[in-house]
Specification:
The structure is a homotetramer.
Chain A: E1 2-6, H1 12-23, E2 29-34, E3 37-42, H2 49-52, E4 57-62, H3 72-75, E5 81-84, E6 87-89, E7 95-99, H4 106-118, E8 123-125, H5 143-156, E9 160-163, H6 167-173, E10 179-182, H7 190-197, E11 203-206, H8 213-226, E12 231-235, H9 253-260, E13 265-267, H10 269-273, H11 276-288, E14 293-297, H12 315-332, H13 337-344
Parallel strand pairs in A: 7-8, 7-14, 8-9, 9-10, 10-11, 11-12, 12-13, 13-14
Antiparallel strand pairs in A: 1-3, 1-4, 2-3, 5-6
Helix pairs in contact in A: 4-5, 6-7, 7-8, 11-12
Chain lengths: ~350, ~350, ~350, ~350
C-alpha cells in the first residue's frame, strides 16, 4: 500500500486533488488522519513520480504492512499521547492506570480513587458496563457508574478510562470520559472499532485472548483508518493450556510490538494472572520489558469486591508497588528500550 | 503424604529404625536426601504420635502436595545451591549461564567462553548432544564436544552445563560436567529423571513446552525423590497459538513457582523468543519478576552458527546486557521478591 | 437456580402472580420463553412448597447449571427446530447448510444456490456483512447481498442464513432472513446476544475460537434468557498451536454438548480445516460423532472466490459428498447417539 | 534430498557401489530399508544422470520433504502392514486394538483379553511400564506384566502391544511383543527412536501432546531412517485451552496425514477424551474420517481400574461398539477415503 503524507495546513481542496490524481489512475484511496496530520492511503494502483510532485504532498511511503497507519516503518517513533488533565503516555512517558474492576458504589469508587491518586497513579480505571460470561451475573452500574467516575475525576483530577461494548454507545460516551476501553472479547468487534474511528477520544485496545500480534495491530488499524489516531495497545494475557494462572501473560509482545508499531503499549497483570500475589512482580517485569505503562486493579476493600476481588491489590499494596516502580524506572532510565534493541540486533 | 526430617549425623541404623517403625504400621516409606539432610517420605498409613518421639526424628510434616520434596511448605525457603568453581544460585544469589547453543569447534567455543567470562557470566553453556527434530540434521559433536567444554572450563574457570538425553549417559557424563541439563522434550522422560536422581550433579530441568506448573514440579520430584536434591528449574517458553515468537515466555510462573517451591528458577529468553532483539528485554523482565538467573545463547559469530544463530547474542550485545543487568539488580535489591509478595497478599 | 415451568395457555396475569409470589419472598425473577412455553427463572431465594402449589405452575426444577435454559437436565431432549420452508433441525432431523462464504454477485449466488439445492441441501448460506481482520479487505455486499439471498430463496425454496455483526442490525435483518448467524468473533458480543434474545428468528451461534464449552453454552443462555428459544450451536474449530490446519476441529464437543444441552449442534468443517480436501472427511466424521447437521462452503467457481476459495467445494464435489452422507446416515440410523451413550456409560 | 530405490535382490556390494558413487561426488549418504526394499538416502550433493544409470538402481526420486522415507510423494500408497498372528493394518485393512490401560493382575488381563477377542478386536493392548506424572504413583507391573501379556496372547491368539520408555529396554523387549508403543511423552525421545530404528518390530508412534504434524512425521522418520519401516501413527489428542475433555482430539490430521504419508494412522479416543461416554462416538468419527484403526481402553471391571478407569469401556459397551463399527465400515466401503479426497480436490 501507499501512504501519502500531506503538508501541514493543506486545505480540503488540496486533499481532494491528491485523491482525484490517484483515482484518475485507477487507484482506490481513503483519507485518514495520521499521527503527523492528514494522509491519503492508496492501494498503489497507478502510482508514479507525478504523485510526489503534487504541491500539497510532503512524502510518499510504500509499505507491505497490513497495518500501514499503525506501522513504525511508515510513521517512525511515537510522540507522547495526551490523555487529558495533564497526563500523557508513550514516547518516553510512563502511565499507571489504576482502580476497581467495576464501579460498585460512590464510597468504594471515591475511596479507591483518592488512594490511587495519592500513590501517584496517572489514570483512574473503573467498569460501568461489564462484559460477563453469564447473563445472570452483575452487569455493571451503567450510566450511574459513568456519573460516579466523573465525580471521582473532579475529586482527584485523574482522567478516567472505562469500557465501551456497543457501537451505539460510542457517540454519547466519548465526550464523558478521557479514554474508551475495548475489552478482550471486543478486539475484533469491527462495528465497534469503526465507531471508535469516528471519535477523537483515546482508545485503549486490549488484545483478544487468542489474537495474534498481527490481528491485534490490524484491529488497531480499523480505528486509525477510521480517523482516530489515538490508540493505546494493552496486553492482558492470552489463553493457553496452563490454568495455574487465569491467562498467560505474553510479555515478549512488548518489545516485539515496539519494533513493529509506533503505538504505546501497556500491560494488565491483574486479568493476566488473576492472582493478587503475582501482580506486583508482573508489573515490574512489564516495565523492565519496556512497557509504556500499566493498568492495575485496585480496590479499597478487595474482600468485598463484586468482581475480581482475588486479583485486586488493596491500597497499601498498591502504594508499596508504586514505590518499587519509581526506583525501577530510575534504573531503566539510562538506556531506553529502543536503543538497547538496536545494540542487541 | 508425610515427610519425616531426621536429625543431623543420624546413622543408617537410625534411619532403618524409622522406616521399620512405619512399615510395621502398614506404611510405605522411602528414604530421600532432602535439602536439610536425610528424610523418610511415607504415604501416611499408621502415622501416630509415636513417630515424632523416635530419638532420631527432628520433625514430622504432613502435606497434600504431590511434590513434597520440592514444596516450599515442607522445606521452607531455599539456600544458595553450589554450582562448583565458587559459583552458586538461589537463596539470593543470581547466576547468568551463557554460551553457544551447540559446541561447533574449539575456536568458536573458547572465543565465546572467554568473552562471556570477561562480561561476568557465572556458567558456560554448550550443547554436545543435540535433540533435533529432523534425523538428518547436525546432532552435535558428542564426546568431543564434552572435551572442548572441559578445556574451556580450565581456560575460564567457569563451571559448565550441557544437555543429557539418555539414561545410560548419566553415569559417565555426571562426573565430567558441573550441571546436567534436561531439555524441554525430556521433562517427562521418567527413566532419565530416575537416573538423574542417583547422581549428585546439579540438574537444570527445563519446563516441557506444554507442561503445566504442576507437571513440572512433579518431574523435579522424580529427581529429588531419587536422592538428588540439586535441581534448578528453567522456564523456556511454552507452545501457544501465536507464532510471532518461537514460543510464549511465561514469566508469571517465576513468582508462582517461588510461592510453591524452594527450588531456584531461571529463564531462557533465547529459546523462548527465537529472536535476538527480544532477548535483552526479556532478560530484564525475567529478573524484575524475581528469577534466580538466566541462560542466554551467545555466539562469537552468530551469523556462522550451525544452530539457533538468529536468537544468539554476539559478544558486544551480551556485554552491554550484563551492564544493564547489574544496574537493574541494584534497583531490585532493597525488596527481595518474597517479601513484596507477602505485602501484596 | 430455579426454573418454574408454567402450564400451557396461562395468562400474563398468571405469570405475574408467580413472579410476585417469589419477589415477596425476596427472590429475583425473570420471565423467559422456554422450549416448552413460558418459564419463570428465579435465583431461588425464598423458594418453598407453596410455589409448586400455585395454580398456573406445571413444575419447579432446581439446577446448579450456569445455563438453566440451555440445559438438558432441566428441559430434557430437544424437539426438531423449525427453520421455515418446511425445513427443520435437531430431534433426529439432520440439516446441511451450504453456499458461498460471501455473496459476490447475482450470477455466483444463484448458480451456487441452485446447485446445492439440487444436491439436497436444506439451507442456503451466504455472507453479506463480512467480518474481516483487515480494514482494507472486501467487507461484503451489505444490504444488496441480502436482497440477492432473498431472490435465491425464491428461486430454490431454501431458507437462508447470514451473519449479523451489530446489535442495531438485528431488528431490521431478522424479518428478512430465516436464520441469523453469530460469527466466532461475536460469540461473546453480549449486546448482540441480548438483541438476538428479543427476536424470534433462529440463531446459529458459532463457538468462539478460544471459547470453552461452558462459555459457549452461557453465550447461548444470553439469547435464551432474553426470550428467543431458537438457538443452534455450531462448532467451527478452535485455536491451537498447530497451524497445519486453519483451526483445530474439536469434534468431541458434539457428544459432549449433547450430554449437557437440548440445543441442536452442527459442524463447520470449511472454516475448521481451511482445506478443501479435508472438508468431506470431516463432514463424515462430524455426522458419525452425532452432529445434527453441517454448514459447508460451496462455490460454483472456487478459483474466482473473493473469500475462502481454497476451502470451498465446487458443485460436483458437494454433490458427491451428499451421496456419501445419505449412505452414512442410513448406517447410523439404527442407534441414535443418546442411546449408544447410555450403553457406553 | 534424494532417495535412490534399489532393485530387488541386490547385494550388499551393489549397495556399497551406489554409496561410493555418491560419496566420491561429495554427497552424504545413508542406507535405509524402505517399504519397497533397500534405499540410499543422499543429501543430493553431486547427483547427476550417472546415478540412475548404475545397474542396481531402480529409481531416483528428489524431494523437498523433511521426512522422505515417510512421504507419500516418494513411496506412494501404503500396503497392509503385518502385525503377526494373521493380523494386519493399513492399505485398506482396519484394526481395533483394545485392552486395559495397565496390566494389573492375571485375572483382570485374561478376562479382558478374552472379552475383546470375542468381540472382534485385532490386537490386545496393555501397559507394563507406565509413564506416570507422579513418582509416587503405581509405575506398572514391569517384566511380570509382559509375561501376563504373553500368556494372554496364547489364550486369545491376539498380537500384543505395550509401551517401551527407555532405549535400553528396546533390544530385550522387541522379541517379546508384536508391537512396541511410543507414548506421547516420548515422541521426541530421540535416543529411544534411534533404538527402535534398529529392530524390526512394528512401532506404534503416538503423537506428542503438543507436536505439530510435521514434527510427528519427522519423529517417524527417525525410526524409518534407522532401518525399521514398520511404523504406525496414532493421534491421541493434543493440549488446548479447553479442559472439558482430557485432551482435544484432532481428527483433521487423519485425512491430512494420509495426504502426506504412506504410514497407517489410528486414533486413541480414550486418552483423547478421558470420558467413557465420548469414546464410542469418537471411534465412529475417527473411522468416518478415514482412520486405519483404533486403540481403545477396555477393562472387565472399570470401577476397579488402578489407572484411567473413568475412560475405560466395559466389555458389553465394547461389544456394542464393535457392532456399530462393522455396520459403519460397510457404509464407508464403496468409496475409500483417498479417492473421495481426489474428488473433493
Amino acid at each position: 500500500m501507499i501512504v501519502v503524507q500531506l503538508k501541514d495546513h493543506c486545505s480540503s481542496l488540496d486533499i481532494a486533488r491528491v485523491c482525484d490524481h490517484q483515482e484518475r489512475r485507477g487507484g482506490q484511496v481513503r483519507v485518514v488522519s495520521g499521527p503527523q496530520g492528514p494522509c491519503v492511503v492508496s492501494d498503489g494502483t497507478g502510482v508514479d513520480k507525478s504523485l510526489g510532485q503534487l504541491p500539497s504532498v510532503k512524502s510518499v511511503s510504500s509499505t507491505k504492512s497490513s497495518y500501514p497507519m499503525a506501522s513504525l516503518e511508515v510513521f517512525g517513533p511515537q510522540k507522547p499521547l495526551d490523555l487529558g488533565r495533564g497526563m500523557s503516555i508513550g514516547g518516553g512517558k510512563m502511565a499507571v492506570m489504576a482502580g476497581p474492576c467495576s464501579v460498585e458504589s460512590r464510597e468504594q469508587l471515591l475511596e479507591t480513587a483518592k488512594g490511587v491518586a495519592s500513590s501517584g497513579a496517572s489514570v483512574l480505571r473503573g467498569g460501568a458496563f461489564k462484559p460477563r460470561s453469564n447473563p445472570y451475573s452483575f452487569q455493571g452500574m451503567g450510566v450511574q457508574g459513568i456519573d460516579l467516575l466523573k465525580e471521582a475525576r473532579e475529586e482527584t483530577g485523574l482522567p478516567i478510562v472505562t469500557e465501551v461494548m456497543s457501537p451505539e454507545d460510542v457517540e454519547w460516551l466519548a465526550p464523558q470520559v478521557d479514554i474508551l476501553q475495548v475489552g478482550t472479547r471486543s478486539m475484533q468487534n469491527f462495528p465497534l472499532l469503526k465507531a471508535l474511528g469516528k471519535v477523537r477520544t483515546p482508545v485503549l485496545l486490549k488484545r483478544g485472548m487468542s489474537a495474534t500480534v498481527d490481528e491485534w495491530l490490524q484491529a488497531a488499524e480499523y480505528i486509525l483508518a477510521g480517523g482516530n489516531s489515538r490508540v493505546i495497545l494493552c496486553e492482558r494475557g492470552i489463553r493457553s493450556f496452563d490454568k495455574s494462572t487465569r491467562n498467560t501473560l505474553d510479555l515478549s509482545v512488548i518489545p516485539l510490538v515496539k519494533s513493529m508499531s509506533h503505538l504505546p503499549v501497556i500491560v494488565d497483570p491483574s486479568h493476566a494472572t488473576g492472582r493478587r500475589d503475582l501482580v506486583a512482580p508482573m508489573c515490574m517485569a512489564a516495565l523492565a520489558a519496556g512497557a509504556d505503562g500499566l493498568i492495575v486493579e485496585v480496590h479499597s476493600r478487595p474482600e468485598e469486591a463484586l468482581c475480581d476481588g482475588p486479583q485486586s491489590l488493596d491500597l497499601p499494596a498498591f502504594d508499596h508497588l508504586m514505590g518499587r516502580i519509581s526506583r525501577l524506572m530510575e534504573a531503566l532510565e539510562p538506556e531506553a528500550t529502543p536503543w538497547s534493541l538496536k545494540v542487541a540486533m
